[in-house]
Structure formats: C-alpha cells, structure tokens
Design goal:
- The chain is mostly helical.
- It has one domain (about 15-175).
- The protein has 6 helices and no strands.
- Helix 1 (about 15-25) crosses helix 5 (about 120-145), helix 2 packs antiparallel against helix 3 (about 50-75) and helix 4 (about 95-115) runs parallel beside helix 6.
- The radius of gyration is 18 Å and the shape is elongated.
Length: about 180
C-alpha cells in the first residue's frame, strides 16, 4: 500500500510526528470542521444581506453530505484491510466523504470569498488554496490506511462536480433575481 514499507506495513512511512500531523490534516475534511466553517460563513453572509449565497452554501453542504451517504450505502465498498487503520472509521469506503466534502466546501467557500472580486490573482489564490486543502485531506485518508486511492479520487471528482453545479445554480439565481425575468 502507498505510504507503507513492505517490511513494516503496520507502520506508515516518515517520522513519528508525521502521523499526528496527518491526523490534523484529515480533520480539516471532517464534518465537524466543515459544518462549523459553513455555519460561520453563513452567519457572515446573512449579516451582509447576501441571503441567496447563504442558502446556496447551505444547500451545497446538505445535499453533498446526503449524496455521499447515499453513494456509500448503495455501493458498500469495504475499507482497505491491507494495513492497520490509523484513525477510526464508521462507514463504507467509496467515495471518500472527507475528500468529497472538503473539495465541495472549500471550493464553495472560495467562491463566497472571491465572487465580487475582479482580480484574477485573488481567484487563483482562493481556488488554488481550496483545492490544495482538499488534496491534502484526501492524501491524509490514504496515508491513514482508511481509503483506497480510487475512493479519494472519486470523492474529489464528485466534490468538484457538486461545487460546479452549485456555482451554476448561484449564477442562475443571481440572473433571475428581483427585477429580472
């Protein structure tokens, strides 16, 4: 398996501190962290009277979590058993919920941040950092032995697709806003 040596598959590669650091990174894709970030963003959006964006963000999060659970239930792919899991898991393996949710939510939060900004450098920085966070979260799931690489790649793909779907919804709602056909 990736990130393990053939001689000691029960231990991940790298110094001892790396395992704890990877657990920290994986937490960035956990529902507790992501829901907290979305609730905070929604509070700011509501205070700024950006109600439509708050609703779109909430819909993206809720439907993304629901879609992930439905996929896991319908596909029921077992977790890898090649190596010891270095964190607790409770659901099926495919797709990676951490990868899916982190790609979706960090991209949606980037959109909220840069939507009204024209500078392309700001967009590149925000979206680039969002993707970087999602990639780090996904890789951490493989390192911890709880996902196959294909679980993570599918999670990223679904999360990206779901984010694009909600970006399009946001654009359509903006175009059809008050005073528009």
């Amino acid at each position: 398996m990736i990130f393990r040596s053939a001689e000691r598959p029960d231990e991940p590669l790298g110094p001892d501190w790396l395992e704890e650091t990877v657990r920290d990174f994986t937490a960035l894709g956990g529902y507790g962290v992501l829901i907290t970030l979305v609730l905070a963003a929604m509070a700011f959006l509501l205070l700024a009277h950006r109600y439509r964006q708050a609703i779109v963000l909430a819909m993206a999060l809720g439907s993304g979590i629901l879609m992930n659970h439905l996929l896991k239930l319908s596909l029921s792919r077992p977790r890898p058993d090649v190596v010891e899991h270095l964190t607790n898991v409770y659901t099926a393996s495919f797709p990676s919920g951490h990868a899916l949710a982190s790609m979706l939510i960090y991209l949606m939060l980037a959109r909220v941040l840069v939507r009204e900004r024209a500078e392309w450098t700001v967009h590149i920085l925000a979206y680039g950092f969002a993707v970087l966070l999602a990639v780090v979260v996904g890789i951490s799931r493989i390192y911890l032995g709880v996902h196959w690489p294909t679980d993570v790649m599918a999670g990223w793909a679904f999360g990206l697709g779901w984010a694009v779907l909600f970006w399009q919804l946001d654009v359509r709602l903006q175009r059809s806003g008050p005073g528009r056909p």
